[in-house]
């Protein structure tokens, strides 16, 4: 006796499944609970075990085909493997019914001489193969019955074309989709070799090997050169000793912490792009973001004198001018030349002084007084690609502002009418380290908010100086 194995319900709301791989073929023996077929659904990829023992008589659903829950996947015969060859598709638990009128013409010629009794169909599944009631047909007659009449009568007896004809060739099983994601394969560029153009696991694996070969032929990684200092020892330079002593003394003698804000400098970026040709023609200097940070900081220091002060014993000295030091990276170490009275300068003057002082600092041509008298410090860690850092305050100053790299990224913005949207904006982090002996967190936040507002307004047309 033959048994039909159907696609079971594999989870709540799961209505269909895709056969991804048959673990047995026609003629193979199978035991109870032995894995029979791999099936993939939107929620699970699993193996379907055989509910009965026997021999695989007929596989009704091919690999990469999608069928509904309850559809017959395979027919298993309880006999030996030899019985599988001549047997016609048999329906488990058949229900007798008269032959339907439309089905009579296709089977009339070959079946009429041998069938005088009603045909048997599966009532709920029109795709179930039809067989004559008289099962014990003589051996010479059986092959014509299975070869000719049954194939045209039952839609499934053909190579499952009617089942896949209504499926979507663009459907990709979860198993194949996950494999593609793990392998970095773009499924829109993969041509499926499955039925109806469906993408199979083998197609993804083939694309993966193609991707791997293309990667392997790309330019090889060139390692960074190994420093000659590696594995050596050397005494500290005088400058390094001074920096080390001052850094330690500052950290020991002051209570330092850092507050960070994020600033949208898109308008400044647009302004720079618009005025760059005229600015360079007038000054011979390229306009970057640093002069804007300088001017906004200097103006805010006028309103927040605590950050432009110093502590001497039990006295607080509020400085009358904004003399801003800025960090310059040199081969000898970090040096900080000073731009004096920065709040009184325009962008062209600040840009010119930055370029001049930075160049002479690297060439070791600065005068001693050009690195003295700073009341506040700016350090542009973004020039080396840093997002932000927590800079160290060097006494006798009480604050230092670090500017990170300007990056474009998606940001939620609010229009004048209150509508929110996501847009690509030029963003930067400003990190303010300060001495908590004098400056409270609220003081630092108020200062940063003023700097942020000045930069985001980008109202610098009157300050260009060209």
From TrEMBL:
Comp. bias intervals (Low complexity): 206-218
SUPFAM superfamilies reported in the protein's UniProt record: CoA-dependent acyltransferases, Peripheral subunit-binding domain of 2-oxo acid dehydrogenase complex, Single hybrid motif
An example molecular function term from Gene Ontology annotations: acetyltransferase activity
Cofactor(s) recorded in Swiss-Prot or TrEMBL: (R)-lipoate
Entry keyword Cell membrane: no
Ranges for domain Lipoyl-binding: 2-77
Record's keyword terms, sorted: Acyltransferase, Lipoyl, Transferase
Residue ranges the record marks as coiled coil: none
Pfam families xrefs: 2-oxoacid_dh, Biotin_lipoyl, E3_binding
Domain annotation Peripheral subunit-binding (PSBD): ranges: 171-208
Family label: Belongs to the 2-oxoacid dehydrogenase family.
PANTHER family with a match to the protein in the record: DIHYDROLIPOAMIDE ACETYLTRANSFERASE COMPONENT OF PYRUVATE DEHYDROGENASE COMPLEX, LIPOAMIDE ACYLTRANSFERASE COMPONENT OF BRANCHED-CHAIN ALPHA-KETO ACID DEHYDROGENASE COMPLEX, MITOCHONDRIAL
This protein's name: Unannotated protein
Originating species: freshwater metagenome
């Amino acid at each position: 006796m033959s048994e039909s194995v159907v696609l079971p319900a594999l989870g709540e709301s799961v209505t269909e499944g895709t056969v991804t791989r048959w673990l047995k073929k026609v003629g193979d023996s199978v035991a109870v609970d032995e894995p029979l077929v791999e099936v993939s659904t939107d929620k699970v990829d699993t193996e379907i075990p055989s509910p009965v023992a026997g021999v695989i008589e007929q596989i009704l659903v091919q690999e990469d085909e999608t069928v509904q829950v309850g559809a017959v996947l395979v027919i298993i015969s309880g006999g030996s493997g030899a019985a599988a060859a001549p047997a016609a598709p048999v329906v488990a638990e058949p229900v007798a019914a008269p032959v339907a009128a439309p089905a009579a013409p296709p089977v009339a010629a070959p079946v009429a001489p041998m069938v005088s009794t009603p045909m048997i169909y599966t009532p709920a599944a029109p795709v179930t193969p039809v067989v004559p009631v008289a099962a014990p047909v003589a051996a010479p007659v059986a092959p014509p019955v299975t070869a000719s009449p049954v194939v045209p009568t039952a839609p499934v007896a053909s190579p499952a074309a009617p089942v896949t004809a209504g499926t979507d060739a663009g459907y990709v099983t979860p198993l194949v989709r996950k494999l593609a994601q793990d392998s970095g394969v773009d499924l829109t560029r993969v041509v499926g070799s499955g039925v109806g153009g469906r993408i199979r696991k083998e197609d993804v694996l083939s694309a993966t090997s193609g991707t791997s070969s293309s990667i392997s032929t790309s330019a090889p990684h060139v390692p960074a050169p190994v420093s000659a200092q590696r594995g050596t020892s050397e005494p500290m330079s005088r400058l390094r000793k001074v920096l080390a002593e001052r850094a330690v003394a500052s950290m020991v003698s002051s209570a330092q912490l850092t507050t960070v804000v994020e600033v949208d400098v898109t308008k400044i970026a647009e302004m720079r792009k618009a005025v760059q040709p005229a600015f360079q023609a007038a000054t011979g200097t390229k306009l970057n973001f640093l002069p804007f940070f300088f001017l906004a900081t200097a103006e805010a220091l006028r309103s927040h004198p605590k950050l432009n002060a110093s502590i001497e014993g039990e006295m607080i000295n509020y400085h009358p001018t904004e003399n801003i030091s800025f960090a310059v990276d040199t081969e000898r170490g970090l040096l900080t030349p000073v731009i004096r009275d920065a709040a009184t300068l325009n962008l062209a003057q600040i840009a010119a002084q930055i370029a001049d002082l930075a160049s002479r600092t690297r060439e070791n041509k600065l005068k001693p007084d050009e690195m003295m008298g700073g009341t506040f410090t700016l350090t542009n860690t973004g020039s080396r690609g840093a997002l932000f850092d927590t800079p160290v305050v060097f006494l006798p100053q009480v604050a230092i502002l670090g500017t990170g790299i300007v990056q474009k990224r998606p940001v939620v913005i609010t229009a004048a009418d209150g509508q929110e949207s996501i847009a690509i904006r030029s963003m930067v982090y400003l990190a303010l380290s300060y001495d908590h002996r004098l400056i409270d967190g609220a003081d630092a936040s108020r200062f940063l908010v003023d700097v942020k507002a000045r930069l985001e307004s980008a109202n610098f047309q009157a300050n260009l100086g060209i």
